[in-house]
Design goal:
- With 149 residues, this protein is α+β, with helices and mostly antiparallel strands.
- Helix content is 32%, strand content 25%.
- The strands form three sheets. A three-stranded mixed sheet has the order 4-7-6. It has a two-stranded antiparallel ribbon with strand order 1-2.
- Strand 6 (113-118) and strand 7 form a beta hairpin.
- The longest helix is centred in the first third of the chain and has 15 residues, at 25-39.
- The radius of gyration is 17 Å and the shape is globular.
- The protein starts with 8 loop residues before the first strand and ends in a 16-residue tail after the last helix.
- 23% of the residues are buried.
- Mean pLDDT is 83; it is low at 1-7 and 141-149.
Length: 149
Amino acid sequence: QAAAAEGPKVELDGRLHPRPNKENPADVDRNKRIEEALEKVVTMNFPDDTPLEDVLKYVKENTKDAKGRPIPIYLDRAGFEQADKTSASTVSIDIDSLPLRTTLRLVLKQLDLEYRVRLGLLYISSSDTFDEEEGIAPPPSNVQGGGLQ
């Protein structure tokens, strides 16, 4: 007995949940708050190897809204395992005068991780996990990169 097409799923708390067709109004508000925080210029002075968890604590502390709420950050354990990384994996960055959207992407890229704003969370996972969810196939292993000729 095959179930009707359930659509894409999202992992939260180690379990797969159906991705909702419509966003919860509270999630829409949280997503908007997160997007606004990502536009904020946050100085990132971590010139020495620093655990990702410390950088994210700093981000949360420096992106609190008027009510003192930090942005909610979710680390996808399966995605981290796929990238062979942990929250203790180290990064370095020493940039100021750029929006958090840019500096966070640069930090996460060092660990082959990315973020998306979804379900009222800043959701961090592996690049491969997001590619799979979005239907982007990795290049065949026999294709070599190269420039224009």
